[in-house]
Amino acid sequence: MPDRILGVLGGMGPLASAEFMRQLTLLTPAARDQDHVPAVLWSDPRVPDRTAARQGTGPDPLLALLRGIRGLEAAGCGAIAIPCNTAHGWIDGMRAATALPILHIVDAAAEALRAAGIPPGPIGVMGTAATLAMGLFQDGLQAGGWEVSVPTEAEMARLVTPGIALVKANRVAESHAPLAEAAQALAARGARAVVLGCTEIPLGIAAGPAQPFPVIDTIQALALASIRWAQGERG
Amino acid sequence: MPDRILGVLGGMGPLASAEFMRQLTLLTPAARDQDHVPAVLWSDPRVPDRTAARQGTGPDPLLALLRGIRGLEAAGCGAIAIPCNTAHGWIDGMRAATALPILHIVDAAAEALRAAGIPPGPIGVMGTAATLAMGLFQDGLQAGGWEVSVPTEAEMARLVTPGIALVKANRVAESHAPLAEAAQALAARGARAVVLGCTEIPLGIAAGPAQPFPVIDTIQALALASIRWAQGERG
Questions:
Q1: B22 in A contact zone (CB under 8 Å)
Q2: Closest to B45 (Cβ–Cβ): which among A36, A168, A170?
Q3: ipTM score here?
Q4: Residue numbers in B near A31 (CB within 8 A)
Q5: How many Å apart are CA B26 and CA B220, to the nearest integer?
Q6: A36 at B interface, C-beta within 8 A
Q7: pLDDT digit string, tens, across residues A97-144
Q8: How many other C-beta atoms lie within 10 A of the C-beta of residue B135?
Q9: Do the Cβ atoms of A33 and B42 come within 8 Å?
Q10: Mind listing the domains of chain B with CATH numbers?
Q11: Which spans in A76-135 are helix H?
């Protein structure tokens, strides 16, 4: 029976966190309840908006993130997964404040790219404006030889940013068209795969027809990394 | 911004808990992350099997349930929702051990029956053998004038118990046929609505065509009760 408890720092957004818990369950080889991964989900949607903070128009989320980490530590968790790509912009501050390993979502995405057989070369990454401006994927995927291209500013303003906001407002079906259009634009410019590098985006992309090119779902990638950790791999 | 934190004592099973978090999110009127209900999900699939305990063939789950409640108290939660019907058989022990209100899933189901306009009279209830043997719904719905009928022992053995186990083993698609057949048998015997009184059952029922009679999803009912609590109603 598994005895490592996964801490999930979530609520950013809450629908992505719920989907993370669903994938964590469905991707675990299990024949009964007791085979599944014990986990505590700290779903705090009140964490200040990460993109607004990075753009200097809102309060810093670090204190709220650290409050969640304290809660997960107190609950006995042995590692932390954060199903919000943008929050990883504060990972240095979080790592400085806890001895628990944090399973980095960009490392999980790199592992998913490898598992999907995506060779070094051009790929696309969609994410919040803050995630892309901080270069989280550009930096994290460089070592694997992937060359990251991102949506244009016009595509961000017209498609990606509104698409993410629609998911956070429970308007998932409506988010599909703009998010799919942005992914297709990256593929048309040569991306061999598109990383859905904001955990709202896979929800929108899944709400319509499948894309005719590989997409990397960072919710699923982080769930798989979490299951590997729960099964005994070092975090 | 909401400031009441919901405690979710879950993992029984984990897929039902994830679906509870999804419904909690989708049913909340929200335009952005910060409008959603803060929640902590204690997903502990290691809690001893409730049905085996009630049947005298497995250890008692109360200690594990109380450990979860302690964790949710420590996290600052103001009420507890338990998306597992069978676990409510231990509610006296849980209520004796905490000052937090526990939002009873059978009360939530009664509210859902009222909201669906189901008049007093015959209804069906599906659940684990333990939930039905303990009379959780028979007792809890009596005051509303609903007369509860349950699957036969043969239907339990052939359809309901295996259907629940399939969901817990991540074989949700396969669970639809047996669970739907059991629901239809209750409707054929005169039930005006069928309460899906085990949180695995709505997952299986939703994995195929809709039923031609009202069904009450206890995951959704508990999510709605939780949102009412978060919005300020007394628990």
A1: yes
A2: A36
A3: 0.95
A4: 168-169
A5: 10
A6: yes
A7: 999 999 999 999 999 999 999 999 999 999 999 999 999 999 999 989
A8: 13
A9: no
A10: 6-105+221-230 (3.40.50.1860), 106-217 (3.40.50.1860)
A11: 91-97, 105-115, 129-134
